[in-house]
Amino acid sequence: MMEDTIAAIATPLGEGGIAIVRVSGREAVDIVEKVFRPVPGGKRLKDRGGYTLGLGWIVDRKGNHVDEVLVTVMRGPKSYTAEDVVEINCHGGVLAAIRCLETVLENGARLAEPGEFTKRAFLNGRLDISQAEAVIDIIRAKTEKGMSMAVKQLEGMLRKRVAELEDRLVGLNTMVEASIDFPEEVGDLDEEIARQQAQEILRELEGLLRAGERNRVYQWGVKVVIAGKPNVGKSSLLNALLRKKKAIVTDIPGTTRDIVEDYINVKGIPVNIMDTAGIRETGDLVERIGVERSEEVISEADIILAVLDAGAGISEEDERVAKMVAGRRVIVLVNKEDLEEKRVTLEEVERLFPGQTVVRGSVKEEIGLEELESAIEEAVLAGKVEAGDEDIMVNLRQEEAFRRVKTSMEGFLAGLETNTSLDCLAVDIGEALEALGEITGKTLKEDVIERIFRDYCIGK
Ligand SMILES: Nc1nc2c(c(=O)[nH]1)N(C=O)[C@@H](CNc1ccc(C(=O)N[C@@H](CCC(=O)O)C(=O)O)cc1)CN2
Ligand SMILES: Nc1nc2c(ncn2[C@@H]2O[C@H](COP(=O)(O)OP(=O)(O)OP(=O)(O)O)[C@@H](O)[C@H]2O)c(=O)[nH]1
Ligand SMILES: [Mg+2]
């Protein structure tokens, strides 16, 4: 149990219906008791049962009413942190929340660090670290899909899978240790069984790593940059995908100069989409800076949407764009297909962007947009979709640990082949178990734990 009692505002600072000041720790009830005055006939906090609400006033040292509030008591271990928690529900104004918080801090609570409530839930064993990490993923989720995967993680999806792996490893370890400790009784290690077990563990690890890599895009999203020469319809495309008139569209080449960006949801993938200045040689200083910026963001894109103008035909400027994006993941949109006179052939597009996905359409007539979104999804998931992969999330920290488990298991298998000593095999398994423990937080070092929670919001 932690020493200090911590407090923070758990809701965003701004005008709203209600704001919550959360207090957690051994003295949570005592501290709030000092500043809470129940309405006549209402119970004192000490006498309240867990998970009940009481109406009253928060009063400061001078006896002034700070705000009218509802107070919830949740007694540990039945609370978010597994400690005594008191939540003060005050009116949703910035000052109401700050004044209630100050009153609690003046009476012995300390301001909580970012993520400290969740950290306590972890340190007190209510959540493992993969579930604690899921809490922040839920808060930051940008699409339904990202949200639903984070919720599964909070429910303990990865925790369960790691526990199963751990069971298998412990089983394998028992086999090896028994042969070391009681060679007469159990005899030599049955290498065939050990090999099979290790291979099964490896297969499971590979599945988790694959699913993790694929599913991370639903959490983090991708950066898609619209590129092309002036006047092909890049800004029109941005607006069409956003379903709002965000960027200025005119028939004057060189309209866009700044990068215009926003987020769209493409089949559950959060896409940061950017419109750029049309690429061309220009004497206009402002436009030239715009073109430089385009080149910069193009170089950082995950996917480039290269737009061509079916009516204008291929020009030197298109060649320049093609060179710029050669070797990258590109989706080509041949735009303005609604025009009578078409001057762009598929052969030319194929020559310019060999092997890339081509979509023909018209932003003006809203033709080809669906196909474009599917092409984005395909490009993002290219090579990553595998039957049997599930909605499991594996973040980079967890992935790194899984890779170490994998390396140890490969070492174990190699050891079996070369008849290494049993002691060496036991070391491999020990290392695998240690790395696995980092995923749930069993064997995490203090500084890593600190780093994980530092990214959280105050009050979480
Ligand atoms: N007002 C409020 N709303 C909130 C939270 C909160 O802490 N306060 N939460 C978080 O920020 C989330 C809810 N998460 C929670 C998870 C577990 C427990 C809890 O008390 N668990 C105990 C007892 C469960 C029971 O009643 O049996 C336990 O697991 O032992 C509370 C909140 C979202 N909404
Ligand atoms: N006929 C036709 N015109 C289009 C289509 N898409 C865009 N346009 C027109 O093409 C012109 C240029 O569109 P923009 O979206 O401003 O082009 P841009 O590529 O952003 O141009 P810059 O910002 O100058 O690089 C506008 O007059 C649009 O209305 C289309 O599918 N068909
Ligand atoms: Mg534009």
From TrEMBL:
GTP binds at residues 231-236, 250-256, 275-278. Homodimer. Heterotetramer of two MnmE and two MnmG subunits. This is tRNA modification GTPase MnmE. One of its GO terms (biological process) is tRNA wobble uridine modification. Its EC number is 3.6.-.-. GO terms for molecular function: GTP binding; GTPase activity; identical protein binding; metal ion binding. Mg(2+) binds at residues 235, 256. Gene3D superfamilies: P-loop containing nucleotide triphosphate hydrolases (3.40.50.300), Probable tRNA modification gtpase trme, domain 1 (3.30.1360.120), tRNA modification GTPase MnmE domain 2 (1.20.120.430). The keyword GTP-binding applies. It is found in: Cytoplasm. (6S)-5-formyl-5,6,7,8-tetrahydrofolate binds at residues 22, 87, 126, 460. Keywords: Cytoplasm, GTP-binding, Hydrolase, Magnesium, Metal-binding, Nucleotide-binding, Potassium, tRNA processing. Exhibits a very high intrinsic GTPase hydrolysis rate. Involved in the addition of a carboxymethylaminomethyl (cmnm) group at the wobble position (U34) of certain tRNAs, forming tRNA-cmnm(5)s(2)U34. Residues 221-381 form the TrmE-type G domain. Belongs to the TRAFAC class TrmE-Era-EngA-EngB-Septin-like GTPase superfamily. TrmE GTPase family. It comes from Syntrophothermus lipocalidus (strain DSM 12680 / TGB-C1). Pfam families: MMR_HSR1, MnmE_helical, TrmE_N. K(+) binds at residues 231, 250, 252, 255. InterPro entries: G_TrmE (IPR031168), GTP-bd (IPR006073), GTP-bd_TrmE_N (IPR018948), GTPase_MnmE (IPR004520), MnmE_dom2 (IPR027368), MnmE_helical (IPR025867), P-loop_NTPase (IPR027417), Small_GTP-bd (IPR005225).
